[in-house]
Amino acid sequence: MVTPESDRQHLDSVTTADGTVIAVASIGAGRPVVYISGWLSHLEHGWRLPDERAFYRRLARGCRLIRYDRAGCGMSGPARQPPSLASELEQLAAVVAPLGSEPFDLVGVSLGALVAVAWAAAHPATVRRLVLYGGWVSGAAVSPPSAREHVLALVGSHWGLGSDVLTDLFAPDASAAARAEFGRYQRAASDAATAQSLLALSYALDVGPLLAEVRSPTLVVHRERDRAAPLAQAEELARGIPGAELVVLPGRSHLPWAGDAVALAATIRRFLGLRPVGAAEGGLTPRQREVAALVSDGRTNREIAERLGIDERSAEGHVERIRLRLGFRSRAQIASWWAAQGERPAAPPAP
Question: GO annotations under biological process (predicted)?
Answer without folding.
Answer: regulation of DNA-templated transcription
